[in-house]
UniProtKB/TrEMBL annotation:
Organism: Dactylosporangium vinaceum
InterPro entries on file: GntR_C, TF_FadR/GntR_C, Tscrpt_reg_HTH_GntR, WH-like_DNA-bd_sf, WH_DNA-bd_sf
Keyword Disulfide bond: no
Pfam name, any one: FCD
Protein keywords: DNA-binding, Transcription, Transcription regulation
Taxonomic superkingdom: Bacteria
Signal peptide: none
Domain HTH gntR-type: 2-69
Protein name: GntR family transcriptional regulator
Lineage: Bacteria, Bacillati, Actinomycetota, Actinomycetes, Micromonosporales
């Protein structure tokens, strides 16, 4: 049976990622505990987990809140991603084998075939698309063969998930399909400089939308 803390954490995480809390909205532990029928300690435990994922902020003497869209933290994460991921992609292109190429093709095919939104007019990406998106980006880098670098990617991706969801509302005309197709094509053509530059620009556009 799922523990109360796990259920509350999962519920709050989904609510934040789906935009049910506005940026900078207060996350009051006692109110949330009452709403979910759990103890204050359980509510605080769930909120601290969300802080660790970058989905909430802990405010001195003021409890917790959803991060702000313009927080400098998003720009720092984007800078880290734009520095690290293109460099790892270069390694992946240099080291990746045919099996890796086939996984990149499959991951891109799944991403291209997954609708970004559950319903027409939605402002936030669906969970299914978000997972296909993550899988594509990670598969691109897996050819590097370095689990430390991949663990760094995993952490930065988790830290930037909320920013990606918010950016969808601010760049409704952005064509992710074209961006991803170009990255895949350059990667499979073994054009390391070209693929790295396309990935760098791709990552940067999300941060620009929230600046």
């Amino acid at each position: 049976m799922t523990q109360p803390s796990e259920r509350m954490y999962a519920s709050l995480r989904t609510a934040i990622l789906h935009g049910r809390f506005a940026p900078q909205a207060a996350l009051k532990p006692q109110e949330l505990a009452n709403e979910h029928g759990v103890s204050l300690a359980v509510a605080r435990e769930a909120l601290l987990r969300l802080v660790g994922e970058g989905l909430a902020e802990r405010l001195p003497n003021r409890g917790f809140a959803v991060p702000a869209t313009g927080a400098q933290r998003w720009q720092r994460i984007a800078e880290a991603r734009a520095t690290i991921e293109p460099a790892v992609l270069v390694l992946a292109i240099e080291r990746g084998d045919l099996e890796w190429e086939s996984r990149v093709r499959a991951a891109h095919h799944r991403l291209a075939g997954t609708p970004p939104y559950e319903r027409e007019g939605d402002a936030h990406y669906s969970d299914e698309w978000a997972e296909a998106h993550r899988r594509f980006h990670r598969t691109l880098l897996e050819g590097c063969g370095n689990d430390v670098l991949l663990a760094t990617f995993d952490r930065l991706w988790l830290d930037s998930e909320l920013a990606r969801r918010w950016s969808a509302r601010r760049t409704p005309g952005r064509d992710h399909r074209v961006e991803h197709r170009e990255i895949e094509a350059a990667t499979l053509a073994r054009d390391a400089p070209g693929a790295a530059e396309l990935l760098r620009r791709h990552v940067g556009r999300t941060a620009e939308a929230l600046a």
